[in-house]
Amino acid sequence: MKTHLGMVVGAVAVCGALAGVASAQVHEGDIVLSLVDGRITTGAGIGAAFEQRRVFATQLGVSFPHFNDSPGFDCLPATFPVGSRNGFRILDALRKWDGGDFDQIPVERMELRFGTTLTRITPETPGVVDGFTLSVGSNGTWHRHYGYTLLAPASEGVYLLSMSLFSNDATIAESEPFWIVFNDGATQAEADAAAAWALANLGGGSGGPTCDSIDFNNDGSLFDPTDIDAFLSVFSEGPCVPETATCNDIDFNNDGSVFDPMDIDAFLSVFSEGPCL
Fold first, then answer.
1. Predicted pLDDT of residue 204
2. Are 128 and 89 in contact (CB under 8 A)?
3. 131-152: per-residue pLDDT in tens?
4. What is the pLDDT of residue 15?
5. Residue 74 CB contacts under 8 Å (≥ 6 apart), including other chains
6. How far apart are CA 124 and CA 94, in angstroms?
7. Predicted local confidence at residue 18, as pLDDT
8. Residues 191, 114: contact at Cβ < 8 Å?
9. Cis peptide before 77, with omega less than 30 degrees from 0?
10. Three-class SS string for the chain?
C-alpha cells in the first residue's frame, strides 16, 4: 500500500490524463518532468495541470524485499532535446525517520541501479555522488525507472533519499533538490508523518504562507477525514468534531483573516499533500 503522498501523486497524474490524448504517454505514479524557465522541474500532472513538487513517496518491498523501481521519471514528447542525456546526483547520505525528523544517518545505504552494470550507492556521510546519464528518447521524452534497493541490514523504517536531475545540454539547468520518502516495513502512520514532515520542512517554498498542522482537532491522527469534518464545522461556527476534542483556529494559513474561503482551499490543499495557499 502506498503512502498517502504517493497516492496523491498518482491521483494528480490521473487528473492530468483527462487533459488530452497525449497524457497517455505519461505513466501514472511517475515523477513528471517539465522545463520551467530552462530548468528541469519535478512535479505531477501534465500540461496546464502540471504542478511543481519536490517530495514524493513510495514503498519498498512491493515485489521484492527492500526494493522498488518506482517512482520513475516521465515527461511529454519534445520536453528534452533529441540526442541529449539526463542524469542524476545523490545529494546526501541516506536519512532515516526517527519519529521527529530525518537527521539520523543510518548504517543502511541505498543502491540506485539501471540494468546490470550501472549502479551508484548513497554515501556513508553527507556528500554528493554523481550518477550516470541515460539517453533521451527519439521523440524528446525521458521515461526511466531506476531500481532502488535498501542495503543490509535493511531494518524497518522510513528512509529519505535526496537527489537532483541534470542534462548534458548546456542550455538546461539542473533541477532543484527533490526527495523520495521510502517506507520499508514501517506503519502507515509513521510513513504519513514522515512524508508530512518532509513536505513541511523540505518541499515547501520560502517566504510564502505558513499553514497549521492538518491534525485540526489535535487527536494525534494525520490524514484523518474527521479533521476535514472538524475544520468545516468550526468554519461554519459549529462545534469541534468530536465535541470532546480541542480544535485549532480557522485561520489555517495564518494570514490574519478569519472566515476566509482561502483557509478552506489551503486546508484541503495541505490535506492532499499540496502546498500551503
1. 54
2. yes
3. 999 999 999 999 999 999 999 9
4. 33
5. 25, 26, 27, 30, 31, 32, 33, 141, 142, 143
6. 8
7. 31
8. no
9. no
10. CCCHHHHHHHHHHHHHHCCCHHHHHCCCCCEEEEEECCEEEEEECCHHHCEECCEEEEECCCCCCCEECCCCEECCCCCCCCCCEEEEEECCCCEECCCCCCCECCCCCEEEEECCCEEEECCCCCCCEEEEEEECCCCCCCCECCEEEECCCCCCEEEEEEEEEEECCCCCECCCCEEEEEEEECCHHHHHHHHHHHHHHHHCCCCCCCCCCCCCCCCCCCCCHHHHHHHHHHHCCCCCCCCCCCCCCCCCCCCCCCCCHHHHHHHHHHHCCCCCC
Q: Which amino acid is at 217?
A: N
**pTM above 0.90?**
no
Q: Are β-strands 73-74 and 31-36 bridged in parallel, bridged antiparallel, or unpaired?
A: parallel
The structural domains of the chain, with segments of one domain joined by +, span 4-203, 207-277
Residues forming beta bridges with residue 52, ordered by sequence position: 43
Chain centre distance of CA 84: 26
- Residue 181: beta bridge partners? 57, 160
- The grid cell for 217 is 482537532
Q: How confident is the model at residue 223 (pLDDT cuts 50, 70, 90)?
A: confident
